[in-house]
Amino acid sequence: MANWTVDSAAEFLLAAERNRTDVEPLTDEWIELDAATGHLIQDALIARKVAAGEAVTGVKLGLTSRAKQERMGIDSPLTAVVTDAMQLPEGTPAPYSRLIHPRIEPEIVFVMARDLEGPGVDAEAALAAVGTVHAGFEIIDSRYRDFRFRLPDVIADNASSACFVVSGRAFSPAELDLAAEEVVVKVDGVEVDRATGAAVQGHPAAALALAANALARQGKRIPAGSLVLTGGLTDAVAMAPGSSFTAEFATLGTVEIPAG
Ligand code: 0L1
Ligand code: MG
Hints:
The protein is of the alpha+beta class. It has one domain: Fumarylacetoacetase-like, C-terminal domain (Fumarylacetoacetate hydrolase, domain 2), CATH 3.90.850.10. Helices cover 24% and strands 26% of the residues. The mean pLDDT is 96.
C-alpha cells in the first residue's frame, strides 16, 4: 500500500489484529516513519478501540528486557496502552482463536494510587504514587510477520499488546524489595527462564518513572487507578495450545495461563 497516513496505518494494523493475519512492517514501504509518528498511529489505533467500546485502563512498558533491546538495537523501552478488553480473568486459557503467534512474559504490575506526571519523575517519586503491586503475565502478539519490525513499527502496533492477567493478590510497595523479587517461568511445570525485578531498568519503579517521563513528552500523564505493566522480566516465551504457563513470583505469588 502506497501513500501511508496515520489513519490508514492504524486501520491496517487493526484489520491485521481482527482478521488474525500477520503483515509486513510499515517501514518496509513507509521508510520515513519515525517513532513520533508511530505514537500518533498508536493513538489512532487506541481511539478506534475506544470508539468500539473498550476503555483505557492503563499503560504498559515494552522492550524492557536486555534480550529484546539488543535484538532491536535500542537502549530504552517504549510505552503503549492497555484496555479493559485486554485483561483476562485469572485462570482463563489464552484466547488462541484470536491470536496470531502469541508469546508470554512475566511482569510486575502496579495499580496507581495517585496521578503521576513527568517530566522529572524519579523512581522514588514514582513508587510513592503506587497503591498496590501485583504479579502479572502478559501475552504479546505482534501483528508483524515473524515479529519482524523496527522501532516505529512496534510503537504503532501498541507494543505487540494482546492480553494479560493480573493476580488479585495485592501488596503494598513498602513491604517488598522489588529489585530482588524473583520470578520463575514454567511451561508445563518445567522451568524455562527466571529473572528478578532488577531486569526492568534496575527496578520496576525506575521503569514507571521512565514511562511517566516519556508520556509527558506526548502531553500525557498516568492517572490514579491506572494499571501499569512495568515490562517483561524475562524474554518472551512462545505459546501453544495444550501447554500451561506459570509465573511463580517469590513474594507476589503465582499467575497461570492454563492449557487451552
Ligand atoms: O511488552 C513488550 O515488551 C512487547 C514490546 C514489543 C516487542 C515485542 O513484541 O517483543
Ligand atoms: Mg510486556
